[in-house]
Amino acid sequence: MGSMASSSTRPTCSNRATFERMVTHFEVLLTEGMMAPCVPVDRLPILAPAERHVLLVEWNATDEDYSRDRCIHQLFEQPRPGARRRRPPWSSTARS
Question: DSSP letters of 4-67?
Answer without folding.
Answer: ----SSPPPGGGHHHHHHHHHHHHHHHHHHHH-TTS-GGGS--S-HHHHHIIIIITT-------
